């Protein structure tokens, strides 16, 4: 049955408070969000719309905005008295919200007809579910609705703790009884989700120690799963979203949030994060004692359980001592292998370059595996270094099993790497040396 044929008993569904935090948002995008919520939400289900101004400095977000919203039903505007950041701005009004369900939205969205009912119905069925809509795309330049790929996607992450999108794995597709049932997702994208107010408070709400923006979505996702609840995407709920060209936060603040999430939830796997972000070990992230105590109080599972049961598709790197880090060019001192494709979402086929060694990991982080590959895994699925046809340069290709010959490298005892192919004389001597050891 298609989504549009779904029928809802509005009298039995919970009500919601929609909470939208903003900071120096453009007039048109903010109002587009507010009006779409009012126009596309059944009145009986929408308890209120709460706008939280995170201490904006732009004049149009002060008296002019107050005047614009004054005649709108169910809309309240709250001005923070200092810059709180996205998380604390949300929490300013989450505790006093009147609805049974809290629905958090970004401030540059457009809700579509039928967006709300599936979210509320699912939470009515399962109060402990946190449910996200399908996120469609609004063009950054023209603001026209571009839609989506047609295929539902779920959230993931890499070992830099950067959120990533993925197609639904085959193991989940096989279990889906219908194309309109909810899909379990390892992580959420961030500011678009619905959660029972009662459950949100039980789970400890958001972490008020998180700074400004960035990383809170992964930390909350880990807490949902490890503490016995579920995170889901509903294919019948659609909200389109403007994806800014630049992140609305500083990378330093986002890194501090990622370190905080790492220290509370990743257990021994936190070393995989620190190997890729060596400077993160020096990052100040505040006191996480309260969050660690909450995890213990809720009897949450460990991160190994999360990887094995929620996100088995994520490759767990070996990170053997001496087999990860920078690859420095022996002939040109101070230059390291680097990888910076024009499109961050398309890594395959682009050349590996030489760039000044910076010691920060990131695009200069490679690892040598027991399969004699050199992997570069800022994205999923992972990429492998490969010798381009003709042997003139190195490129990134998708890792394969079995390992193809042009992905095969030897790590010598002196720490150098060669591209000797399988069966070569040097490879045979190398294997003989290993047997003698």
What distinguishing features does this structure have?
5-stranded mixed sheet, Trefoil (Acidic Fibroblast Growth Factor, subunit A), disordered C terminus, 26% helix, elongated, 23% strand, 2 domains, 437 residues, alpha+beta, Spore Coat Polysaccharide Biosynthesis Protein SpsA, Chain A
> How many DSSP H or I helices?
12
Rounded to the nearest angstrom, the radius of gyration is 24 Å
Give the class-level CATH name of the largest domain: Alpha Beta
Based on secondary structure, the structural category is alpha+beta
Mean pLDDT: 85
Task: State the strand order across the main sheet.
Answer: 3-2-1-4-11
Helix content: 25-40%
CATH architecture type of the largest domain: Alpha-Beta Complex
Query: Uncertain runs with pLDDT below 50, 5 residues or more?
Result: 429-437
Report the span from N to C terminus: 64 Å
CATH homologous superfamily annotation of the largest domain: Spore Coat Polysaccharide Biosynthesis Protein SpsA, Chain A
> What's the structural domain tally?
2
Q: What general form does the structure show?
A: elongated
DSSP summary, beta strand count: 21
Q: What fold name stands as the CATH topology of the largest domain? A: Spore Coat Polysaccharide Biosynthesis Protein SpsA, Chain A
Major sheet attributes: 5 strands, mixed
Tell me the fraction of residues in β-strands, as a range. 15-25%
